[in-house]
Design goal:
This protein is α/β, with parallel strands linked by helices and 287 residues long. The protein has a single domain (16-282), classed as Alpha-Beta Barrel (TIM Barrel), CATH 3.20.20.220. Helices cover 45% and strands 15% of the residues. The chain is built from ten helices and eight strands. The protein has helices spanning 27-40, 59-71, 87-99, 125-136, 157-169, 183-195, 212-222, 228-236, 241-261, 276-284; strands spanning 16-21, 47-50, 76-81, 104-108, 141-146, 174-179, 202-206, 266-270. Strands 1-2-3-4-5-6-7-8 form an eight-stranded parallel barrel, surrounded by four helices. Helix 5 links the parallel strand 5 and strand 6. Helix 9 (241-261) packs across helix 10. The longest helix has 21 residues, at 241-261.
């Protein structure tokens, strides 16, 4: 009697998570960032990223934070913006990244610092992605930004999508979105990108809600829509921080679960250098 073949059952890969930090401004803030990084280690993030100020204004702070997080055992992806930079300056940064053993970069156009007149030769993130590939080949995994609710400076959704597709075609390995609170915007953006030939993962960016006025300020700058019902609920809570955090955790956890259930390849948390909001959402999710 022939033996029946043994069937192997494969499970889909577990969605990955990544976490963003920003460069601390002083020693006390640095201590808080490192404490948050230590506390978030148990979430086993695939990597952590570190932001980069307009025109490279926090370049030294970014490098310091990167070194600290590497010492904590993290795979670190520094942000790198190109607006106003020269090829020589960017080449130097890439060399320093390689010397630190960095394997990932979040490549961005960046915001133009106030008063800057000379934009330099790199006007778009596409230029930066292409430059990194020409200079370093496959040395870095390159992530770029995506805007499900349309970049605030874009002329139209179609123009924004065209820019995104160009970034991916220039050599990006994947994308991280600006945060949003409408899952349909994300799924629509992914569908439209796929129709244009993008097959790389597009990971949704997640912003925990802990402070309404801070959230409103950030959202105004980056073009994120806070749905009216969420905004009014948060406003009605006034300065009740506990109620704001509890409500925010419920809202963002449900958003994350909807994204994961819909096939999102992972989640990228904007931690704001705090551990508790991100950890609470993570532990409430069904992976």
């Amino acid at each position: 009697m022939s033996q029946q073949p043994q069937l192997t059952h494969f499970s889909p890969p577990r969605p990955s998570i990544s976490i963003e930090f920003f460069p601390p401004r002083d020693e006390a803030a640095s201590a808080r960032m490192l404490q948050a990084a230590t506390e978030l280690k148990s979430l086993n993030p695939e990597y952590v990223s570190v932001t980069y100020g307009a025109g490279g204004s926090t370049q030294q702070g970014t490098l310091t934070a990167v070194k600290q997080l590497i010492a904590e055992g993290y795979d670190v992806a520094p942000h790198l913006s190109c607006i106003g930079s020269s090829a020589e300056a960017l080449r130097g940064v890439l060399t320093s990244f390689q010397q630190l053993g960095i394997k990932r970069i979040v490549a961005l156009r960046g915001d133009m610092p106030s008063g800057m007149v000379d934009l330099g030769p790199f006007r778009h993130a596409t230029d930066l992605v292409r430059f990194i590939r020409e200079e370093t080949g496959a040395a870095f995994n390159i992530q770029v930004a995506a805007y499900p609710e349309v970049h605030p400076q874009s002329n139209s959704p179609d123009a924004d999508l065209t820019h995104f597709v160009a970034k991916m075609a220039a050599g990006a390995d994947g994308a991280i979105t600006q945060y949003f609170f409408n899952a349909d915007a994300y799924f629509d953006f992914v569908d439209r990108s796929t129709a244009k030939g993008v097959i790389a993962p597009i990971v949704p960016g997640i912003m925990p809600i802990t402070n309404y006025y801070q959230l409103a300020r950030f959202s105004e700058m980056c073009g994120t829509e806070i749905p009216r019902w969420i905004r009014l609920r948060l406003l009605s809570m006034g300065d009740d921080r506990a109620s704001i955090r509890a409500f925010g955790q419920d809202v963002v956890t449900q958003l994350c679960q909807t994204l994961l259930d819909g096939g999102a390849p992972g989640l990228h948390f904007y931690s704001m250098n705090q551990s508790e909001p991100t950890a609470s959402i993570y532990h409430d999710l069904d992976f």
